[in-house]
Design brief:
This protein is α/β, with parallel strands linked by helices and 254 residues long. The protein is 43% helix and 17% strand.
């Protein structure tokens, strides 16, 4: 793994949603491999804590405050990254939200915020990264952190538009693969099952008591497991395209 990641040493990676959970785990792994990582998130104080934990590693970590729902902030963050760290070689789209609402009696603003973060923000960040990669003639890699919900709708109450946003990510990944076929760029989707992360707490998402009890006892991946899978797809040879990687904890039943 380490040897096959050597070509990325000293290169620049952007990780959106880097304040905690899967995003923070990926950022730490990339820094440990010697990359210069810009961690994008709205809550800069949390990603600054991530920076403190990796200050003695091979690479660098820089906290960049960005609201992934705002196009101008995303564009400014990419400009700052290029001006201060260098051109972007890797983009990890990890930012995601899940709001408390329903489809049958839902809050339209919460629906929009979920799509703005999980889909539109991902598209804008991807577009900005591709502009840089093409201008600099970089054979870059883009990784969407998807979900098992992007492939099957789980029987979990309250997910509302979240599975629809992740199904959109699945479709966008394939559309980008076709667009990238002659561009020298790689696009990948990593779809984890149940992960032991603070995602639902970070989003203030409340399950009903029965669902919460079932999820508490269910098998879980560690955030480190997802980060390892991202390093694996990044470490593949130039002639290899891992388009979709689905990882689930052993024994997961849904």
């Amino acid at each position: 793994m380490v040897g096959s990641m050597d070509r990325w040493r000293g290169k620049v990676a952007i990780v959106t949603g880097a304040n905690s959970g899967i995003g923070a785990a990926i950022a730490r792994q990339l820094v440990d491999q010697g990359l210069k990582v810009a961690g994008f998130d709205r809550q800069c104080e949390y990603i600054e804590q991530v920076a403190k934990r990796v200050h003695d590693k091979k690479g660098q970590f820089h906290a960049v405050k960005v609201d992934i729902c705002k196009e101008d902030e995303i564009q400014e963050a990419f400009r700052w990254t290029c001006d201060n760290l260098g051109p972007v070689h890797i983009l990890i789209n990890c930012a995601g939200v899940l709001h408390n609402t329903t489809l049958w009696n839902g809050d339209v603003e919460k629906w929009k915020k979920t799509f703005d973060t999980n889909v539109i923000g991902l598209c804008i960040a991807t577009r900005e990264a591709v502009k840089i990669m093409k201008a600099e003639k970089i054979d870059g890699h883009i990784v969407h952190i998807n979900s098992i919900s992007g492939h099957v709708v789980l029987n979990v109450r309250g997910l509302n538009v979240y599975p629809a946003t992740k199904c959109a990510v699945t479709a966008l990944t394939e559309t980008l693969r076709q667009e990238f076929n002659h561009e020298g760029l790689k696009i990948k989707s990593v779809s984890p099952g149940n992960v032991d992360t603070g995602f639902t707490n970070d989003c203030n998402f409340r399950m009903d008591s029965k669902a919460a009890q079932e999820m508490m006892g269910a098998p879980k991946l560690r955030t480190q497991d997802v980060a390892d899978s991202v390093l694996y797809v990044l470490s593949t040879a130039p002639n290899v395209q891992i388009h979709e990687l689905t990882i689930r904890p052993t024994g997961e039943s849904f």
